[in-house]
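Thread title: Can someone regenerate the structure for this chain?

I was given the following input by a collaborator and told the matching structure tokens would be attached. They weren't. Posting the sequence so someone can regenerate them.
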Amino acid sequence: MPLAVRLDHVSFAYGHGPPVLRDVDLTVDRGEFVAIAGPNGGGKTTLLRLVLGLEQATSGHVHVALGRRGYLAQRAQTPIDAPLTVRELVGAGRVARSRLLGPPARADRQAVREAIERVGLNAQADRRLTTLSGGQQQRAFIAKALAGEPELLALDEPTTGVDVEAQEAVAGLLQRLGGELGMTVLYVSHEFGAVEHFVERLVLVRERIVFDGPPSDLPGVWHDPSHAHA
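Best answer:
Regenerated them for you:
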């Protein structure tokens, strides 16, 4: 498969602080669905931000072959108290690809409709976000990212605060979308139990990459509930 992302000997530190990432090597092929897990402060979100170009490596090289990138930031950092409907939120995700002035073009309206349909929110399209469940809200934000027609979709803790059933539903949705759209998906989470049956690869980050492979190959201790936040 063609390469989507490559990190070569990447290290990163914030300011004059200690390194958050040390000598990280990572490659991701186009169309892969990869979970990135690790403890708080272990570097998983920083790795994602480096891939997205939101941070610059202190040393090493980051190469991303995909031009259109969608990003779903941590749920806790995403304002959902504004009186927006699902359709309005998803429409905002089309801005980067639409004309600046005038009403949305036909292609923009179509992209918004398709994104809402893909995440299964047709019936909720004109409802306010605040009336939706946590899982439905996350589907709406995924649809917002999809409206921009990304080749790479990066999600940072997308299911924080929702129950396991909703976490599994979102993971299953992302697996299906990646396959349908040929989209590369990077899914950052510290609770990987709900996604391990859907992702092709699990990458564990603790300053360095300490595991990279199928979740089924992970040592048994990691599957113990007491290690769910590893």
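The chain has two domains: 1-67+152-230, 83-150.
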